[in-house]
């Protein structure tokens, strides 16, 4: 058995991916901020302005000088949103301001409208006390503060903050183009073609949608039969266009599993083809300069898991992104047992109201429907056959839990 065919620990497999991509980085491009959701920042972003840019009222009310507390004030003017007042505050006077309006110089607080009554130019205070009701200039962000660091995968909230700071463009990593290849004589793309021995092509659409969730560009998606030459031809065409190629199926040890041979046929270096992880044991990884190919297992839960564990990790390394896998330690809701303990196991689970994780009904890695009732996976380490309710376990959420 050659080294690439040996089963290796999950941590070792991840280190291999890290090492092969240590010097591989995609180019950057400068794009409008509004087009940058899901993209990876290549440089730290600092604010050119203070936020708020001026002292502004947090409420509709009456601006008064600091330490000028009295029961009545003389109204000087009313300032609407987008306007700038012209009157100067003096003791015993007030300016009516709307929420977000710049308060006059010297303002110490804004008395909210609900605590006053106005009669002509006289404003009577019905209730004293409360906060200043002022958002002070720069209290949120100071000019030259770093608002986002390089490696951030930009969210909608990040985009809004960049726009709020007056930033119109950002430099981001180009998304490495991806190709998806589903293998198998048994898969069809139309229910009209279903007959004994045939199943729907789930993995192709699953991978395409996962890629879309992470703003990855899929250049091609195709199905190929269990034929060594056909798989090699599909790989060759995919590598001409894509930097990341993801196959599903055809990586086990069956008579009609030809992916590993096809990887060699197109000149790729095979790094590993068996990983001590459940689901996902026949996980396969190969590379060429600037290119990576992942052979994912054929069952869809394994496809889902290994895409997140391996493929997204590779994309993050290539783009300079921060890690996309999130982990938390949470208590297990009930006892868990298994017979074999030679692999790290990811178990579909849901969160209970009290913050524990509970295994969902799960029949194995072909049981994709189980994920519709799951919030994520809890992790059972190598060597562990039994976990007791209340034990802390590592929980990693499904994609939809952290968007």
Distance between the termini: 43 Å
Find the structural class using helix and strand composition: alpha/beta
Count of distinct strands:
29
Main pleated-sheet profile: 7 strands, mixed
CATH top level assignment of the largest domain: Alpha Beta
CATH superfamily of the largest domain: MoaB/Mog-like domain
Number of domains: 4
Account of the protein in words:
This protein has 403 residues and is α/β, with parallel strands linked by helices. It folds into four domains: 3-26 and 175-319, MoaB/Mog-like domain (Molybdenum Cofactor Biosythetic Enzyme, Chain A); 30-50 and 139-173, Molybdopterin biosynthesis moea protein, domain 2 (Alpha-Beta Complex); 56-135, Molybdopterin biosynthesis moea protein, domain 3 (Molybdopterin biosynthesis moeA protein, domain 3, Beta Complex); 328-401, MoeA, C-terminal, domain IV (Beta-clip). It contains six helices and 29 strands. The strands form eight sheets. Strands 1, 20, 23, 25, 26, 27 and 29 form a seven-stranded mixed β-sheet that branches. It has a six-stranded mixed β-sheet with strand order 8-5-7-6-10-9, with no helix packed on it. Helix 4 crosses helix 5 (259-265). The protein is elongated and about 90 Å long. The mean pLDDT is 95.
What's the topology here?
Layout: E1 7-9, H1 10-20, E2 28-32, E3 45-46, E4 56-57, E5 61-65, E6 72-79, E7 93-97, E8 107-112, E9 116-119, E10 122-125, E11 134-135, E12 146-148, H2 156-164, E13 169-173, E14 178-183, E15 187-188, E16 199-200, H3 203-213, E17 218-224, H4 228-241, E18 244-248, H5 259-265, E19 269-272, E20 274-278, E21 284-288, E22 291-296, H6 300-319, E23 328-331, E24 336-337, E25 344-351, E26 357-359, E27 376-380, E28 386-387, E29 392-397
Parallel strand pairs: 1-20, 6-7, 14-17, 14-18, 15-16, 18-22, 20-25
Antiparallel strand pairs: 2-13, 3-12, 4-11, 5-7, 5-8, 6-10, 9-10, 19-21, 21-22, 23-29, 24-28, 25-26, 25-27, 27-29
